[in-house]
Amino acid sequence: MKHATLVDATDLDAWADRLDGRFGLPRLLRRLVVATTSGLRRVAFRAGEGTQLPGWDGLTETGASSTWVPAGLSVWEVGAGADCKAKADADFDKRSKKPLDVIAKDTTFVFATLRRWPGKDAWLSTRRLEGLWREVRAYDADDLEAWLEAAPGVHLALSRAIGKPGAGAVDLESWWEDWIAETEPRLSAQLLMAGREQVVGVVKAWLDSALPTSLAVQTESKQETLALLAAIIVTLPEDDRDRLLANALLVRDRDTWDTLASLQNPLLLVPWFRDNVQGAVSAATRKGKSVFVPLDRDTRARESTLAVPRVSWDAARRALEAMGCADTAARSLATLARRSLLALRRKIATNPELQQPAWATPESARLLLPLVLTGAWEHRSEADRAVVQAISGVSYDEVQSRLSRWANVEDPPFRRIGDAWLAASKEDAWSLVGGEPDASDLKRFFDATVGALAVPDPRFDLPIEKRLVAAALRHDCAISPLLMESLAESTAMLGARGFSRGSRICEQTADAIVRELFGKANADWRVWATVASTLPRLAEAAPDTFLNAVEVGLAPPATPLLKLFEDQGDTMFSTSPHTGLLWALEVLAWSPAYLTRVVLALGALSRLEPGGKTLNRPMASLERIFLQWLPQTTASLADRLKALDRLRAKEPAVAWVLLRNLLP
What we know:
There is one protein chain. By secondary structure, the protein is an alpha/beta fold. The protein is built from 31 helices and 14 strands. It has a six-stranded mixed sheet, with helices on both faces. Helix 15 (about 325-340) packs across helix 16 (about 340-345), helix 17 (about 360-375) crosses helix 18 (about 380-390) and helix 25 packs parallel to helix 27. The longest helix is centred in the first third of the chain and has 18 residues, at about 20-35. The radius of gyration is 34 Å and the shape is elongated. About 45% of the residues are buried.
């Protein structure tokens, strides 16, 4: 492929003066050999500082001769110095005297240089007459230019590395390296393939067939689909990987496509343009090319299209941990990856502005903001739909219309999974829609959240032994656990970060929600029990207000919080809503500002709670906070000792048991 912006012999000669040129020539030769030679049995070239080690710079063995690589065994020496003849003579004489582990008469000697060598032909004639080797070859910059034109993938990659990228196409390896370099940590191939083993197997079989056919693959976006192909290839065995990467090209326009399709090389082409893709694919396969067609979810798939499932959560978590993410972060990011890999990529991007989805325009953002606050809900739940309608301020039909529009774009803000609508990433969406929620937004959110969470679950009106079958008795909570958790999460985000905007009105709204919920709930333990699973989020939203409510709830004579410690169900399947309260207090204990109040609350609970079958008890929470070798708090040792002193003064019996349990 001839192109004015690709490297030529002059560029190669200049590259020889650079350190990366001198060290990079063996790597270039290896890629050229792999890209243009069939029947390879062995190929080995040293690269980088390995060129300074003893032994051959390169070795090839093939079953059939090609234009550039002779049949049988060949040994290679390389040079980038200005005096080509001197380097070639020195290498030839040394290897002729000591050919190491090869038989010279049965082997071809090849010398390659990045320089232009005017005396190359004369040198070859002289050396061939000596008859020491089966054959002698020499390649200079002009020869390498011609070889590069026969290997467009290698040509494009080298041009990009030197600083002369081609406009119409890019090699897949360069695209992949750029794509994964835009995040920290870098995305791994394993993450792209997480839980997609069946699809990976189909793509590998297609790549291995080497037939001039096309394969259409569909994921959430064309970027993800292309990244999946690259991930599969880079994890193949070295020879297969290098062969495919040397011939895999991402083509940006039809003219370049037609040029590449007309070449004799067995290329793997990827169309990255929109006009008449089907015709371009058919033309290329007729000319002996393999074509990978990346599709997004907006493209109507044919029966032969390979539909790719979302990554699995567990496999994604393991991949993220291997990328260097801590356990908690890996779990959170795996959840996001499960919903949207593009949203994950944007979240960990070093420059998030590089990715701007279609729905993040100012005119769309205003409409999207209330739904981002809502976060997730069950479409089939009438109660959930009423809450969504109340927060958005429009009819649910209008909500559906907006969601349908945004769900059909690449990298959507919301996903429909079964009967549930979920924000792909609430924080990610908020950072993109921009602006602050105004007073009316927050007032609707306040009213709807309090109205939804402050209604006691009817199952707590049943006798304890019947509560586990409340759903069958139609005594379950009206709103779904999904919406309940999402509302609590949004409240926490408003209180802790104002959705990363630091708005005082956001914090005030979160505080008012917690105060309204638990100011009334102290007279009714059922509300605490109803929202038990969300208590850690609500505690994070307004820590002082939450602790005030806990302290009032433990005050005699009513002490309504003790009702949370009643086991629900029979011996084998008993549960207890008090665990949510303990988790909430443990969350707040991480902050030195709240440690003492949390410790005193847990101390009072340890003294007052009736005991039960559930293993998670207030004393166990205290022990985790003060664990000597791994305390579950960021408070200093001095602050922890002060908290223990307060506990000893307030709850001496509890403090004694705690200190005894903390002994090794």
